[in-house]
């Protein structure tokens, strides 16, 4: 029996401005979504009943991969059920889009498994009904995101960032963070371009940091720990947290920081990558 498998990559929000709210209460964003080189392994095959098995992590609420399958069925009509196997490597409730990426992989793999011939646009539309971040993982290209995060402009920045991701042992619920989110919004950027994205990456912010700190004070400590590492030039939170990241002046200093943090904070999840954008 055919089994298809892929890596469901994680993302980081290098900056995130909340610029308003739409009629449904969703927040409008301007953010640069960067695709990372780490991810979950997800496999799919035809089965007698719809089922999702998750290794390395307990998903207490309904698995979003199942929701993604149901969203395809809502679009194309009834399909033979599938079994989805996910080996979780992306930390959960961490602002790295793990669940959203699993959902997008499910849509892509089901499209291939059942020869549905859905276009990228169709898959992105299905993805949007599953979650605001899911369309990004259909395209899997680093991009400048607006709207709820689904309007994606792939922008090549021609920069390499020595990036260290650091997640403290605390999880953050996205919906709760948005509920506590800012009441005064950041004005829209004057232009959406590679130049403005680079400026925001080096000198910008993440507007979800303040609400995340109310829910998860260890995020503040983590931001300080990252900022104090030799060579760190930017220390910021990704998405709704709790993962923070540091951008370093060079690769060696970032790798040294990874070594230091792994030794000093064994309960933190850390990942180093030279991010080519
Ligand atoms: C904050 C971000 C930044 O990339 O990432 P994560 O921290 O989740 O990784 C995203 O906006 C998370 O998007 P996603 O996780 O897909 O959110 P959804 O499932 O669509 O929505 C969960 C809840 O968050 C709120 N929500 C989400 C997106 C948005 N632009 N405005 C919102 O207000 C809504 O209350 C919604 O009910
Ligand atoms: N396949 C999945 N992977 C991760 N989390 C999932 C999945 N399905 C449902 N969830 C639930 O979605 C919530 C957010 O998870 P996740 O996508 O990892 O975080 P974030 O939105 O911060 O990037 C968690 O509470 C988790 O229980």
Automatic annotation (TrEMBL):
The keyword Kinase applies. One of its GO terms (biological process) is terpenoid biosynthetic process. InterPro entries: GHMP_kinase_C_dom, GHMP_kinase_C_sf, GHMP_kinase_N_dom, IspE, Ribosomal_Su5_D2-typ_SF, Ribsml_uS5_D2-typ_fold_subgr. Residues 63-140 form the GHMP kinase N-terminal domain. Keywords: ATP-binding, Isoprene biosynthesis, Kinase, Nucleotide-binding, Transferase. It comes from Candidatus Jidaibacter acanthamoebae. ATP binds at residues 91-101. Gene3D superfamilies: 3.30.230.10, GHMP kinase, C-terminal domain. This is 4-diphosphocytidyl-2-C-methyl-D-erythritol kinase. It catalyses: 4-CDP-2-C-methyl-D-erythritol + ATP = 4-CDP-2-C-methyl-D-erythritol 2-phosphate + ADP + H(+). The lineage of its organism: Bacteria, Pseudomonadati, Pseudomonadota, Alphaproteobacteria, Rickettsiales. HAMAP family: IspE.
């Amino acid at each position: 029996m055919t089994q298809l498998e892929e890596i469901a990559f994680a993302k980081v929000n290098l900056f995130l401005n909340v610029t308003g709210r739409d009629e449904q209460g969703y927040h409008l964003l301007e953010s640069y979504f960067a695709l990372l080189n780490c991810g979950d392994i997800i496999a799919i095959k035809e089965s007698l009943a719809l089922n999702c098995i998750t290794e390395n992590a307990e998903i207490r609420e309904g698995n979003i991969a199942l929701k993604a399958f149901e969203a395809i069925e809502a679009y194309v009509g009834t399909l033979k059920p599938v079994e989805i196997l996910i080996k979780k490597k992306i930390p959960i409730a961490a602002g790295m889009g793990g669940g959203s990426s699993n959902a997008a992989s499910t849509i892509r793999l089901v499209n291939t498994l059942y020869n549905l011939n859905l276009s990228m646009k169709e898959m992105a539309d299905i993805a949007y009904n599953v979650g605001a971040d899911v369309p990004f993982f259909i395209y899997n290209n680093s991009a400048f995101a607006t709207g709820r995060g689904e309007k994606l402009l792939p922008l090549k920045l021609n920069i390499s960032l020595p990036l260290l991701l650091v997640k403290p042992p605390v999880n953050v619920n996205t919906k709760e963070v948005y509920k506590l989110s800012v009441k005064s919004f950041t004005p829209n950027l004057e232009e959406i371009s590679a130049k403005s994205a680079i400026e925001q990456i080096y000198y910008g912010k993440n507007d979800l940091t303040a609400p995340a700190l109310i829910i998860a004070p260890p995020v503040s400590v983590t931001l300080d720990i990252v900022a104090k590492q030799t060579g760190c030039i930017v220390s910021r939170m990704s998405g709704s947290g709790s993962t923070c990241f540091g951008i370093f002046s060079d690769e060696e200093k970032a790798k040294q920081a990874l070594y230091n943090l792994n030794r000093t904070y064994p309960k933190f999840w850390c990942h180093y990558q030279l991010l080519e954008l």
